[in-house]
Amino acid sequence: MDVELAANKKPAKELAKELHKLNGKIVEQEKIQNLKLKAAEKKQELEEKSQDTRLVSILVNAIELACPSLEETKVPQTQSSDSQLAPKETTKST
Question: For bias kind Polar residues, which ranges apply (predicted)?
C-alpha cells in the first residue's frame, strides 16, 4: 500500500529511473551470483584434482615401499647384452 502511495506522488520519469536502477541492481546481483557459482565450481574442480594428486602420490609411495627400487635391482652390465645371452662355453671336447 505504501508503494502505491509513493508511486502516486512521484512523477513517471522518476519512477522509471528508480525502476531502471533497481533492474540494474538485480542484473548486477545476478552477475555476482553467477560469478560466485563459477568460482565455487572451479574450487571444487581444483579440490578434486588436488585429491587425485594426493592419491597418486600415496600410490607411488606404496609401490615404492612394496617393490624395491629399480636402482637396487639393476644388474651391473660390464659386457654387451649380446655376450650375456650367448652361452659361456660353446665348444665341447670329445
Answer: 75-84
- Cβ neighbours for 77, distance < 8 A, ≥ 6 positions apart: 84
What average pLDDT does the segment 59-63 reach? 90
C-alpha to C-alpha distance for 63 and 58, rounded to whole angstroms: 9
Residue 7 and residue 15 in contact, taking contact as beta carbons nearer than 8 Å: yes
Burial class from Cβ neighbours inside 10 Å (0-12, 13-18, 19+) for residue 77 reads exposed
Whole-structure pTM value: 0.46
Q: Return the C-alpha cell found at 22.
A: 533497481
Please give the average per-residue pLDDT across 17-45, as a whole number: 93
* 88, three cell numbers: 659361456
Residue indicated by cell numbers 538485480: 26
The 10s digit of each residue's pLDDT in 79-88 is 555 555 555 5
